[in-house]
Amino acid sequence: MTDVRETGTNVFRQLMPGVLGDDATLPKGGFADELFEIAVDNVFGRLWGRSLVTLGMLIALRATDELAIHFRIARTNGLTDDEIAEVIYHSSGYAGFPAASTANRIAQETLGE
User: Fold this and answer.
1) How far apart are CA 17 and CA 95, in angstroms?
2) 6-38 pLDDT tens trace
3) Coiled-coil regions in this chain (predicted)?
């Protein structure tokens, strides 16, 4: 079984090239720097491939700051624009039309680049 940290670091580098250096260490010394380790281990090491679920949850939470990057990650994970749109459509019935409308605007701004 692959180490979760190694998997998470590799996935993070694939999805966001250039953010981490080439060495195997994660940034240290900042305020609450363990939060980044938690993200690498749990989000990227264990959950990264579940973009549809992640998008739905971020839409429902109205996590607008995170949606732009996760729309890009979803594409990197292989989701088509039609599949991403389907998540937005589906969320309108469960998270509400305002949340879906906001997600749609962010998707248009982000994916239309």
Assistant:
1) 32
2) 888 888 888 778 877 776 567 677 787 788 888
3) none
pTM for this prediction: 0.67
Contact (CB, 8 A) for 77 and 36: no
User: Could you give the dihedral angle defined by the CA atoms of residues 92, 60, 64 and 113, in that order, rounded to the nearest 10 degrees?
Assistant: -50
Q: Quick one: CA torsion of 63, 68, 69, 73, rounded to 10 degrees?
A: 110
All domains in the chain, ordered by first residue: 4-47 (no CATH), 51-111 (1.20.1290.10)
Locate 20 and state its tokens.
């981490």
CA dihedral sign, ordered 39, 110, 72, 64: positive
